[in-house]
Design a protein that fits this description.
Shape of chain A: elongated
Radius of gyration of chain A: 30 Å
Distance between the termini of chain A: 22 Å
Order of helices and strands of chain A: HHHHHEEHHHHHHHHHHHHHHH
Structural class of chain A: mainly alpha
Strand order of the largest sheet of chain A: 1-2
Number of strands of chain B: 3
Largest sheet of chain B: 3 strands, antiparallel
Strand order of the largest sheet of chain B: 1-2-3
Largest interface: A-B, 66 and 61 residues
Oligomer: heterodimer
Order of helices and strands of chain B: HHHEEEHHHHHHHHHHHHHHH
Number of helices of chain B: 18
Chain lengths: 492, 472
């Protein structure tokens, strides 16, 4: 069979498919649903972008306040008079702290860390409903900074979001079932089977072409609408990586649809009645889309229990109490590590300050270990899920969709870890000034480290994606082989 | 005649091995779900009750001798799950189960068991309520889609007419048969509800008549909802071919169960966004720093309290008051923060109400949303019940703080012996959780119930109105 005859065959099947009233109706429904999902997504992303803009201007304002401690020119009189009473309070507070590295270490609210939205962030809600895309600097406490200050959205958590991941993962297969369950059975039941057999060279090829045309049309509608809407109404900065992610997303949609096509071919090869085929297809859907993910979810939640977030804060308090009991040892260690520091006997405050630095270093290092463990549990859970995604193509699809949209749990955990690292960097920046006994200068304020999570939202975690691709291929191949076997058996 | 048709339908079901396997599997899954849910919820209720006893004991055996310090030390109250949460946990796992109580600030509920749980596209329909409301309709579709159309396709529909069975009778009989079957399949839920009613005791926070009426309402509404599905399934089967009715029913199921609720929730949260925790905290801290929230100021509260005290003690000057004035100002400060917190809380409650009203509007499009709303309300696991718990906890906090600050003001202290100390702390009564009254619940869900009744009636009428092939 050459390419030309295949194309002709597909074209003929497309003409037949479009004459079936179910096909245009389903294409319209899927198109409408895609647009609805994209609309909901654009609302979510717009809110996120607005919030990010607010936070960025907040960060810039805090810098201005700090700089105004050195020169009033950074905040003109007119703009100063526009400040709200609380902003004026804040400005005064920062002006008082700006020159002292010790005060700067302890003053909170200087920055927000922000995870920028990927241009295709709306395609999948992922862990976005439970994990924040921003953290507030809560002073010297790292655990307070990493608190997820999100008002619970119980219905969203219980019901879930309507996004393209759900549409493609759960509803598109229903569309596939509706369009393909009776591709062969309808011909048999209407008495045209023998006629069809006499006109085509290969029945398996005919069924594959019919299924492929119908499912392919569904996939094309979703991919084309999504790509068009994403490119025409961009919600974020497009770059090469984001484009690649959109392309890969489309490839995964095709891969997932390919699996359902293979399953449709398999069911049609079983020579069941149309009702029987529909029923079997529906049971497969229930098993792969409802049963397996639910059972796996329960199993994994039972296997890896997450510590409540409040335990992190309580842990920091415990660490602090314990470290305070060992303050002398910490001080001795500190002196050993910094032989260059000479104590000024006439300045008892210096020793106190250095003791504080020594203690806070001990606390920080211990807290960091606990924080790393806390986040590691989430990563471990993701690894476990990666392994078990082989059980259902839906899981493989979900894993990939979240990755491409930059809303997977891994993205949010990485962002949290990056925030923790940034917190340490920020504290160390002023700590070095404290140790050197230097005052903070305007140039130091201008050189305060700034948080940058660019690229994080479009980063892909390859191992998990490879497993997802392998799962889709495995299921598609298995269905393909089984159908070949059924057709082969039938021919005999 | 109806009985004969029902018996015939049951025979048809028994003869189809595929349907039998599905029914048995479904029944087994529902039974298992009821048992595990009952076990989990019982353990959860026992753990919460034990935590509450422990917190009370900690309060009574505290060693401080300053009543105001005790308010800072505070206590915690724990939410007892509704006894009916075994059947429908609703949004309870997503909301907090404990509230920390202390002076000067109102804490949010914490300890939500569902937080940080893995959720894969939220397609977990394994609670008894979801198995009945989301999965059982799929089983009904499986049985109902071919009830009439198969007769027509096999040519037995005319045969039935020739035997004197009117099409309406046939459709009614088939609808009743599918309904009886779905009632039979929902038996584990009925058994679980009965068990809950039988084992109810006063410590659960609900009296026996209340639990009974709620359980009866849940089951009755579920049956009404299932009746709508049965009537709808048979109605379509009476008008279309088996294949088409299967497709339409599956599409309806996907739209009602998967699409509309999610879209409604998504849109309601986008339309009425909640202010961030940070915004609220900033509003509060600014008001505290400035001693005014724009409407009331701390001075006003101080002045009002001073006037009250002067009148109460019948003196002219503050200096003549026989009490600790600083402690009295604590009371005024508390009233100020309470008023501030009430305003902030009201802002949030208003947004939740607007979201709920918006969601209720979507119930017209999806009876699933209506049944979920009514079922969680009667099970006591919706946001309304959670808000009621938080409100009772807040009232308790205010009583606690007021009693302790009053004691501080009048110079009363716990005694040195353990008994007198316990006696002093016992002035703060034990926390009693109260569930909203059934009439309040009924009022709050009158709209979804109305929608369910309309849906059921409409589909039943549609099923009974001249099915295809009547003329023949």
């Amino acid at each position: 069979m050459n390419v030309r005859s295949a194309t002709t065959g597909l074209r003929r099947e497309w003409r037949l498919a479009i004459a079936d009233p179910r096909v245009p109706m389903m294409l319209l429904i899927i198109g409408g649903l895609t647009l609805l999902a994209l609309l909901a997504a654009s609302q979510r992303v717009s809110h996120r972008l607005e919030r990010q803009q607010d936070l960025e201007s907040y960060n810039a304002r805090q810098r201005q306040f700090l700089e105004s401690a050195y020169t009033e020119s950074s905040l003109t009189n007119s703009s100063a008079s526009e400040l709200t009473p609380s902003e004026q309070d804040r400005r005064l507070q920062l002006q008082m702290s700006a020159r002292s590295p010790d005060l700067m270490r302890f003053t909170g609210g200087i920055w927000w860390t922000i995870l920028p939205a990927s241009p295709i962030a709306g395609l999948s809600m992922g862990a976005g409903g439970e994990w924040p895309d921003h953290y507030y600097h809560a002073g010297p406490s790292q655990t307070q900074t990493l608190r997820r200050l999100m008002r619970p959205n119980p219905l969203l958590a219980a019901v879930g979001a309507f996004d393209l991941t759900l549409l493609v993962g759960a509803m598109l297969p229903l569309g596939v079932i509706i369009l393909t369950y009776d591709v062969a059975a309808a011909e048999r039941e209407q008495g045209r089977w023998e006629l069809v057999r006499s006109h085509v060279a290969s029945i398996p090829r005919l069924i594959v072409a019919r299924c492929l045309v119908r499912t392919g049309a569904l996939a094309v509608v979703i991919i084309a609408l999504t790509a068009l809407c994403s490119l025409m109404f961009p919600t974020g900065q497009w770059d090469a990586q984001a484009m690649r992610n959109l392309f890969a997303w489309s490839a995964w949609v095709s891969g997932y649809v390919m699996f359902w096509t293979a399953l449709a071919v398999l069911i049609n090869s079983l020579q069941l009645s149309s009702a029987g085929a529909g029923l079997l297809f529906l049971l497969c859907w229930c098993f792969l889309v409802l049963a397996v993910p639910s059972l796996l979810e329960r199993g994994i939640n039972g296997a890896i229990r997450m510590a409540p977030e409040s335990e992190l804060v309580a842990m920091e308090d415990e660490v602090r109490i314990q470290a305070e009991q060992e303050a002398d040892a910490a001080w001795a260690d500190f002196q050993r590590q910094h032989p260059e520091i000479k104590l000024d006997e006439d300045n008892p405050q210096q020793e106190q300050m250095l003791r504080n630095v020594a203690l806070s270093r001990v606390i920080q290092s211990r807290v960091q270990i606990q924080i790393a463990r806390y986040f590691q549990r989430f990563v471990d859970r993701e690894f476990l899920l990666d392994r078990w995604q082989l059980l259902s193509p839906l899981l493989a699809w979900r894993t990939a969709a979240d990755q491409f949209a930059g809303t997977s749990l891994r993205h949010f955990v990485s962002f949290s870890e990056k925030t923790a690292a940034f917190h340490t960097e920020y504290v160390s920046y002023f700590e070095s000034k404290s140790l050197a006994g230097e005052e903070v200068l305007l140039s130091d304020i201008q050189a305060i480290p700034s948080f940058d999570a660019a690229g994080l939202q479009t980063h892909l975690y390859r191992q998990s994606l490879l497993l997802s691709a392998a799962t889709l291929m495995l299921w598609t191949t298995a269905c393909g082989l089984l159908s070949w076997r059924c057709f082969h058996g039938g021919a005999r | 005649m109806l009985l004969t048709i029902i018996r015939k339908e049951f025979r048809e079901v028994r003869r189809d091995p595929c349907v039998c396997v599905v029914l048995v599997t479904y029944g087994a899954i529902l039974t298992l779900s009821c048992l595990t849910s009952l076990w989990t919820q019982t353990a959860n209720a026992a753990a919460q009750a034990s935590r509450q006893r422990h917190a009370r004991e900690e309060w009574l055996s505290q060693t401080t001798n300053s009543p105001h310090q005790a308010t800072h030390h505070g206590t915690t109250v724990y939410k007892l799950p509704s006894p009916l949460a075994s059947v429908d946990p609703g949004v309870d796992p997503q909301l907090g189960a404990a509230v920390r109580l202390e002076a000067h600030r109102r804490h949010e509920a914490t300890g939500a068991s569902g937080k940080d749980q893995l959720r894969l596209l939220q397609l977990d329909f394994t609670t008894p309520a979801l198995l009945t409301q989301a999965v059982l309709p799929l089983v009904i579709i499986l049985v109902a889609h071919g009830t009439v159309s198969r007769e027509r396709e096999q040519g037995t529909w005319r045969l039935m007419a020739s035997l004197g069975v009117s099409p309406r009778q046939a459709v009614l009989g088939k609808s009743l048969a599918v309904f009886f079957l779905s009632t039979l399949l929902s038996f584990p839920v009925l058994a679980t509800l009965s068990w809950i009613v039988i084992t109810t005791h006063a410590e659960m926070g609900m009296t026996l008549p209340v639990v009974f009426s709620r359980a009866a309402a849940i089951y009755a509404l579920n049956l009404l909802y299932l009746a709508a599905w049965c009537a709808g399934g048979v109605a379509l089967s009476a008008r279309c071919s088996s294949g088409v009715s299967l497709i339409v029913l599956i599409s309806c199921w996907a739209a009602w169960v998967l699409m509309v609720p999610r879209l409604a929730v998504d849109l309601s949260y986008s339309r009425f966004p909640l202010p961030s925790e940070r915004t609220l905290a900033e509003t509060r801290s600014t008001a505290l720093r400035q001693g005014s929230d724009g409407l009331h100021s701390l001075q006003e509260f101080n002045a009002a309290l001073e006037q009250r005290l002067l009148q109460e003690y019948g003196v002219q000057r503050l200096e003549d008051l026989p009490i600790d004035l600083k402690a009295a100002w604590l009371l005024a400060g508390e009233e100020f923060t309470d008023a501030l917190d009430d305003r902030i809380q009201q802002q949030i409650v208003d947004i939740y109400r607007a979201q709920n009203r918006y969601l209720d509007g979507f119930a017209v499009l999806s009876p699933y949303l209506a049944i979920r709303s009514a079922s969680t309300a009667f099970a006591g696991t919706d946001r309304h019940h959670h808000d009621a718990f938080v409100a009772v906890a807040e009232r308790y906090r205010r009583t606690l703080v007021q009693k302790m600050n009053t004691a501080e003001m009048t110079g009363e202290r716990p005694g040195k012996s353990t008994e007198s100390s316990r006696g002093f702390w016992e002035r703060v009564p034990e926390f009693q959780q109260q569930f909203p009254r059934p009439i309040t619940v009924l009022h709050s869900v009158s709209w979804p119930i109305g929608i369910l009744v309309v849906w059921s009636l409409a589909l039943t009428i549609m099923a009974l109105r001249s099915p295809r092939g009547t003329a023949a």
